[in-house]
Every structure is written in structure tokens, then in C-alpha cells.
From TrEMBL:
The chain crosses the membrane at residues 80-103, 123-144, 183-201, 315-340. It comes from Dendrothele bispora (strain CBS 962.96). Keywords: Membrane, Signal, Transmembrane, Transmembrane helix, Transport. Belongs to the mitochondrial carrier (TC 2.A.29) family. It comes from the Eukaryota. InterPro entries: MCP_dom_sf (IPR023395), MCP_transmembrane (IPR018108), SLC25A44 (IPR042164). Residues 37-50 have a biased composition (Low complexity). One of its GO terms (cellular component) is membrane. This is Mitochondrial carrier. Residues 1-21 form the signal peptide. GO terms for molecular function: branched-chain amino acid transmembrane transporter activity. It is a multi-pass membrane protein.
Length: 346
């Protein structure tokens, strides 16, 4: 297990720039039809980015036209260190994922379903495990997203308590179970339902199982005549999963406060940050716009309705093609590997 830690660190470092960019691209609040406000002042426009300072009931609006425009904005304002935000909690997340994988292998090796080659997809153990894991890691997801989007410089050499003081509200620190808000738990339930649906329909190429006793079963699940089904499952999963990811990102940035009120993270964290002597990456520019703490999303349904009304339906598919292409890269790898293995099987 410990041999996996260097691999985890290297892969996390490689994916960090793309992950942090995607999170902030989806988190950026850029309404085309903002809520009514009595005090709205327009700002400057530079290239593909437009910064607008709005009234207190709207928040700051930063229009970024595309994923790579967001990547460029991060680099200009925060530099390379801006792409490594959330790295430490991501490493901890990955470490727990490794422990989970080891435990699953142990359970499978212990013969919970002896003689079955479909344990991973067909047993109730895996189904329950997937749901429980989604619930357990929810606080990790919240902290990672907030760490990525915070305008403050949090060093890995600082005490974890300092970082948590900035990333969590006083109510959340005193009562950590408040992180399990009903709207976020609903997104976990919906995601889990979609997970079950795709696999129950058996349209995912990785699910195909022909227990004919032939050798090389790992490659047989990716038979060429299954790849079109796998491709269809990729499109279906991304069409349903990406809007859920975008909405979840917005909800995770809102912090719980006493009285069931919520606030957008960057604004709500400022008092703690100033008391702790933390400095911002930039004193004059923000990477992303956030919804005002005086006008938060109050529920999952409210979030969807307000995002649709203010930002348009396209906001739900930010980064869609990048996600699809990254998924299809697996088909390419499998196809090449299958072609390479085919001569030796004759």
C-alpha cells in the first residue's frame, strides 16, 4: 500500500493544474441576467476576461470565456502555485481511496462471493460500498473545492487548524456534521442512482462478462464489439454527471451558518483570514466571481433554477467536451492494447 504513495503524489501533481482549472471554471459566477440590484458599477474588460463589480446583493462577476481562458487567468493572477491549490487535501483523499481499495481486495480475496467474477459490479457489497464512500468523502470534496477557490495563500507548512479556520465557518467547525447538508446529500443520492442505472442497463463496456472460462478475461471485457456500447455509456454519463458536478461545486462553496443561512466562501472567510494574518494571492484581482452572501442558493432546486435563469443552460455543461475526450482516451488505450495483443492470441 505504501508503495502506492509516490505514484499517488506524482499523479496528483500531474492532474492538479487541470483539476483546479476545471473546478474554478465551473465555480465562476458569471450571470447574463443578474438579480436586480440598486448599486451596480461596471469594471474593465481585458481580452477574454471581463471584471464587473456589482452591488452587495449580487456579488463580484468575472466573465471568463472558456476553460483555457480560466487557466490563463489563474496563471496571470496567482502564478504556478495557483494550480496546486487543494493539493494536500487531495493527497489525503487519495490515501483513503488506497485504503478503501486494499480493504475491497481483502474482502474479495476472503471469498465473499467465491467463484464469481462479477463481484465488482453485481454484488450488494460493492453497491453499498459505493454509496457509503460517496457519503464519507463528501467533507473531503467540500474542503478540496474550497481550498481551490479561496483567494488566500494557504501553505502546506501551516497548521491544519489555520486552513480549516479559513475554509470552514465557525458553525461548521463546531458541528462538522453540518457539512452534510440536505442539498449536497441529494446530489450524492442522484449520482449514486445514475451509477446504478448505467450499470443495470449493462451498456458500459467494462461491465460485459462472459464467464466462458477463456483466458485473459481482463481483455475480454473490452471486446471490440463492445466499444460502441462503452462509447454510448460515456456520452450518457457525461450528459447527466457534468451538470450535477457543476451544481455540486456551487453548493460546496456555500458555508453553513447558524440560523440555516449560507454564504459564498470567499466573502465569508475574510474575517478569519485577516485575524490569522493570511495574505491574498492578489490584492486587486479575483480569479473567479462568487454569488453574494446576501443572496445564496437555498437548496438544490433553487440552485438549478437560479443558475438557469441568471447564467443560461450552457453553464451546466462547462468543460463538457474536455470530460468526454478524457473518457474517450481510455477507449483509445484499450483499442491499441487489444490490437497489440491480438497477434499473440492466434
Amino acid at each position: 500500500m505504501f508503495l502506492s504513495l509516490p505514484y499517488l503524489a506524482v499523479t496528483s501533481l500531474m492532474y492538479a493544474p487541470f483539476t483546479t482549472t476545471m473546478v474554478r471554471y465551473r465555480a465562476n459566477y458569471a450571470p447574463k441576467n443578474p438579480p436586480q440590484t440598486s448599486n451596480r458599477n461596471s469594471g474593465s474588460t481585458t481580452g477574454n476576461n471581463t471584471e464587473v463589480q456589482t452591488g452587495d446583493d449580487v456579488g463580484s462577476v468575472i466573465e471568463v470565456n472558456g476553460y483555457f481562458a480560466m487557466m490563463n487567468r489563474i496563471n496571470k493572477i496567482e502564478g504556478l502555485s495557483g494550480f496546486l491549490k487543494g493539493f494536500v487535501p487531495s493527497i489525503l483523499y487519495g490515501f483513503f481511496a488506497i485504503i478503501r481499495g486494499v480493504l475491497l481486495r481483502y474482502l474479495i480475496g476472503s471469498g465473499l462471493e467465491e467463484g464469481s467474477n462479477e463481484f465488482r459490479f453485481n454484488s450488494w457489497y460493492w453497491t453499498i460500498n459505493h454509496f457509503v464512500w460517496g457519503v464519507i468523502v463528501l467533507p473531503f470534496d467540500i474542503i478540496i473545492n474550497r481550498a481551490i477557490c479561496t483567494p488566500y495563500l494557504l501553505s502546506f507548512t501551516q497548521s491544519p487548524s489555520i486552513a480549516l479556520s479559513v475554509l470552514l465557518s465557525p458553525s461548521e467547525r463546531k458541528r462538522p456534521w453540518k457539512l452534510y447538508r440536505s442539498d449536497l446529500l441529494t446530489t450524492v443520492m442522484i449520482s449514486f442512482s445514475l451509477f446504478l442505472l448505467v450499470r443495470w442497463l449493462n451498456i458500459d463496456g467494462t461491465m460485459s462478462s462472459d464467464s466462458s472460462g477463456e483466458e485473459d478475461k481482463e481483455m475480454r471485457v473490452f471486446q471490440m464489439n463492445r466499444l460502441h456500447l462503452y462509447a454510448a455509456s460515456i456520452i450518457l454519463r457525461n450528459l447527466t454527471r457534468i451538470p450535477l458536478d457543476v451544481v455540486s461545486t456551487r453548493l460546496m462553496l456555500q458555508r453553513y451558518r447558524d440560523g440555516s443561512t449560507q454564504s459564498s466562501l470567499p466573502e465569508g472567510e475574510e474575517p478569519n483570514a485577516s485575524q490569522l494574518g493570511l495574505r491574498k494571492y492578489s490584492a486587486y484581482a479575483k480569479v473567479i466571481g462568487v454569488r453574494s452572501q446576501s443572496n445564496p442558493y437555498t437548496s438544490l432546486y433553487d440552485c438549478i433554477i437560479k443558475m438557469k435563469r441568471e447564467e443560461g443552460w450552457k453553464v451546466f455543461y462547462r468543460g463538457f467536451w474536455l470530460s468526454v475526450l478524457s473518457s474517450f482516451s481510455w477507449i483509445f488505450i484499450v483499442t491499441v492494447f487489444s490490437s497489440w495483443r491480438s497477434p499473440s492470441s492466434d
